[in-house]
C-alpha cells in the first residue's frame, strides 16, 4: 500500500515539474492574478481565462462556427453543380462519339460507292 502512495506522489511530482518546465504554471498564474486584480469581475471567468491565453471569445467562436456552416453549404452546392457538369460533359462526349462513329460509317459507305463507280469492272 505504501509503495502505491509513493508511486502516485512521484507521478504527481513529475507532472508538476513538466507543467513548470513547459511554462504552463507561469502562464496560468499570470492569468489568475490578472483575474484576481480585476475590479469588475467578468461574468464568465472561463471566457476571461480563454481570452487571456489567446483563445477566441465565445462570440468569435460562434461567428466562426456560423461562417464554417455557411461555407460548408456553399461547398456542397458547388460540388453538386460540379458533379452535374461532369455528367453533362460525359453525355456530350458520348453523343459526339456516337456521331463520329455514324459519320465514319457514312464516309465508308460513300467511299465504297465512289470506289465502285470509279474502279473499272473486273473480268
From TrEMBL:
One of its GO terms (molecular function) is transcription coactivator activity. GO terms for cellular component: nucleus. Keywords: Nucleus. This is c-Myc-binding protein. Belongs to the AMY1 family. InterPro entries: AMY1. Its main location: nucleus. Residues 91-123 are annotated as: Disordered. Signal peptide: none annotated.
Amino acid at each position: 500500500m505504501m509503495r502505491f502512495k509513493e508511486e502516485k506522489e512521484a507521478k504527481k511530482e513529475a507532472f508538476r515539474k513538466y507543467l513548470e518546465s513547459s511554462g504552463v504554471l507561469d502562464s496560468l498564474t499570470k492569468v489568475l492574478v490578472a483575474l484576481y486584480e480585476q475590479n469588475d469581475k467578468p461574468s464568465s471567468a472561463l471566457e476571461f481565462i480563454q481570452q487571456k491565453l489567446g483563445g477566441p471569445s465565445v462570440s468569435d467562436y460562434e461567428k466562426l462556427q456560423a461562417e464554417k456552416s455557411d461555407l460548408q453549404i456553399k461547398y456542397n452546392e458547388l460540388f453538386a453543380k460540379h458533379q452535374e457538369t461532369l455528367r453533362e460533359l460525359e453525355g456530350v462526349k458520348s453523343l459526339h462519339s456516337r456521331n463520329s462513329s455514324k459519320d465514319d460509317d457514312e464516309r465508308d459507305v460513300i467511299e465504297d460507292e465512289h470506289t465502285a463507280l470509279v474502279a473499272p469492272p473486273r473480268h
